[in-house]
Amino acid sequence: MDTLLTRITINPNICHGKPTIRGMRYSVEHILELMASGMTIQDLLEDYPDLEHEDFLACLSFASKLIQVKSVHKMAS
Question: If pLDDT is split at 50, 70 and 90, which confidence band does 1 have?
Answer without folding.
Answer: low
